[in-house]
Write a structure and sequence with these properties.
Number of helices: 9
Largest sheet: 13 strands, antiparallel
Number of strands: 32
Shape: elongated
Structural class: mainly beta
Helix content: 10-25%
Radius of gyration: 30 Å
């Protein structure tokens, strides 16, 4: 048995990150003997109110106006304070009992109600609430669509480590395989995924779907599942829209490191059976010998070599690694490391510059029992699944705000490596005894780079938002293998080297890439009618998708000829595949890898030993929406959306 010595190496990486974070803490902006009070002013719809007047009831401290984030801050001596917040057309509010402590930053949310009649001053006592929970509840209450919201504070109370784990706790949401979401009973093709407000590419090559186990819960701020349509949302859903928002830049300089581990009595310390696991896989890196597809073995030239150069064809097939043999390891406890550092610098001209850097690493090894039974007892197999997973993610945000203007640059990257092995046996529909195994090494990469801006046009209180981003998903089956052995009656199980059906075993690989370019802007125009606040919103969205996909399945075969049966029965019968599919046997022409399908390439008419497609789509959307409060108890949301797909 082998132990994963390399599995402890990530601990060293965490130590390096810890040392690297020390300068951040040393350079942190110090409050000294004072504390900081930040007032966050929003209306009943959870919209940030810029230019609201915040007056601290202390002699000698001048009133301040909120910035584009709806925030006003004061550096104060430790004590208990009260504050008055006022805004045109809204009720004035007095909050008391605000406790400021030495060296601490306190964020206090203030919600202003729209003024409907005579002037009223509302006084409230400070309660120990968490703003993130209150904010998301306000979103759910006042959202123009039916929705469910989960904040990071709620997620922290659970053991959930990915969005796929957390989202299953929301109403009307079902999660399949801990990663695929079904909303209101509608399958994956009827749902849409947004990250920071932009649509994400699909993680699956043959259907519209997104794997939510890609995104760790440590880098998100909240999750919103919207179940009804509004004009400002994409129109390509009937189940729901899952909106994931990543962390915001913190209000004070900070850094943190979290280390966790887990023990599973079914898996940890047990024999873990797998095709060779390289040390690099602990860092989500694919070993070079596994990256043979579209490299050492190229489907673009395979069919050409079949008719022109058999020796070169054998040499190319011999480049496919001989990873048919299994090894036995010992499953180790799960590892989970998280790192984050935030900096914020405030300037005298009511501007601030902030930076956030966060990352996470997770490795798990699990063993599960599996049973499959179809058509009564005619097709029945059972076995075990051995799954090795490494997840790496990173988040970087840079934000600058001055007065009523705000710019933010976000970058999100996440990568998941899965090395999955299955051992099972039983009978198939043909009455054959089946003794088989499979192994799949898969990687999925997600990256999003986004620049966004928010501006309050002073005087008319118009709010302009815009963004541009690029999102890309790469899903690669680096190396897939299926190897069933068959027998009828009491005959010895053996591999099939003659039939060309894919169910008889072979190697496979794929390369899937989807890129989305998004550009959008919207303008909100508030006004007053019937002594109620009204809002008109109009906007534009441009989205372009580009998709490329290659897939090849290669059967291990004895080349057709008069000696096929003789070679099978006398040279290879009863031998394991690792001794049969050797580079030397391939070079000598005893065995080969043969693709089971080919597609005519549209560019140049060249034959390719793969199933593939390339596609592009452009979507242009325009919308107009009115959020109208006709009375205190009657709210009307109406509008129109036009989408043009090319």
């Amino acid at each position: 048995m082998k132990n994963y010595r390399a599995g402890l190496i990530p601990c060293l990486v965490v130590c390096i990150l810890f040392c690297a974070s020390l300068p951040l803490s040393l350079s942190a902006q110090k409050l000294g003997s004072k504390g900081r009070l930040i007032l966050v002013v929003r209306n009943e719809n959870n919209e940030k109110l810029s230019s609201a007047t915040v007056t601290l009831n202390v002699v000698g401290i001048n009133p301040k106006s909120t910035d584009v984030n709806g925030e006003a801050e004061f550096d104060l001596e430790p004590g208990i304070y009260s504050v008055t917040v006022s805004y045109a057309s809204y009720e004035t509010k007095n909050d008391t009992g605000l406790v400021v402590m030495k060296g601490e930053v306190v964020r206090h949310p203030v919600s202003l109600a729209f003024k409907t009649g005579e002037a009223v001053v509302i006084t409230s006592q400070r309660r120990p609430t968490r703003e993130s929970v209150g904010a998301v509840l306000a979103i759910q209450k006042n959202n123009s669509a039916v929705s469910d919201v989960m904040s990071i504070e709620q997620i922290r109370r659970t053991p959930d480590v990915t969005v796929g784990d957390a989202i299953k706790r929301m109403n009307g949401v079902t999660v399949v395989d801990n990663k695929f979401v079904v909303v209101r009973g509608m399958g994956e093709r009827y749902n849409t995924t947004l990250l920071n407000g932009s649509q994400l590419p699909s993680t699956e090559a043959n259907k519209k779907n997104f794997s939510f186990d890609l995104i760790p819960s440590s880098v998100i701020d909240n999750i919103i599942v919207t179940k009804t349509a509004t004009p400002d949302l994409p129109a390509d859903f009937s189940g729901g829209i899952v909106q994931v928002t990543t962390k915001e830049i913190p209000d004070k300089n900070s850094y943190s490191i979290t280390i966790g581990t887990g023990y599973n009595s079914i898996s940890t310390g047990r024999a873990f059976i797998s095709t060779p696991i390289d040390r690099k896989e602990f860092f989500s890196v694919v070993p070079s010998d596994r990256k043979w597809f579209l490299g050492n073995w190229n489907p673009n030239i395979y069919l050409k070599l079949v008719s022109t150069d058999q020796q070169a064809l054998r040499a190319m097939n011999a480049q496919i690694p001989n990873n048919w043999s299994f090894q036995q390891y010992i499953a180790t406890p799960s590892q989970n490391y998280q790192f984050s550092a935030g900096l914020r610098k405030r300037f005298k001209n009511r501007s601030s510059l902030g930076f956030l850097l966060a990352g996470s690493y997770r490795n798990t090894q699990s063993i599960e029992q599996e049973i499959r039974q179809l058509n009564g007892n005619n097709d029945s197999t059972s076995g075990r699944n051995f799954s090795f997973n490494t997840d790496i993610s990173g988040l970087a945000s840079l934000g600058y705000s001055i007065g009523t203007n705000k710019l933010t640059l976000r970058s999100v990257y996440t990568r998941k490596l899965t090395h999955e092995n299955n051992l099972f046996s039983g009978t198939n529909t043909n009455g054959e005894f089946l003794d088989a195994y499979s192994s799949y090494l898969t990687t999925v990469d997600l990256i999003q780079n986004r620049l966004e801006g928010e501006h309050i046009l002073t005087g008319k209180k118009l709010r302009l938002k815009w963004y541009g981003d690029l999102a890309k998903v790469n899903r690669n089956l680096e190396d897939g293998r299926t190897a069933p052995r068959f027998s009828v009656g009491t005959s010895t199980p053996t591999y099939d080297y003659i039939d060309k059906f894919p169910s008889r075993g072979g190697v496979s690989a794929s390369d899937y890439e989807e890129t989305r370019y998004n550009l959008g802007l919207d303008l909100s125009v508030p006004f007053q009618l019937f002594k109620q606040k009204q809002t008109i919103k109009l906007g534009y969205l441009y989205s372009k998708r580009e998709v490329d996909y290659y897939y090849s399945f290669l059967r291990y075969l004895i080349p057709f000829g008069p000696n096929v049966v003789d070679i099978r029965d006398n040279k290879f019968f009863g031998k394991p595949l690792g001794q049969v599919m050797t580079p030397q046997n391939i070079l000598d022409g005893f065995v080969t890898y043969a693709p089971i399908s080919s597609t005519i390439q549209t560019s140049g008419g060249q034959s390719v030993a793969a199933d593939f497609y390339s596609a592009a789509q452009v979507n242009k959307s325009y919308f107009f929406m009115g959020d109208l409060n006709l009375s205190e108890k009657f709210r009307l949301i109406a509008g129109a959306r036009y989408e043009d797909n090319l």
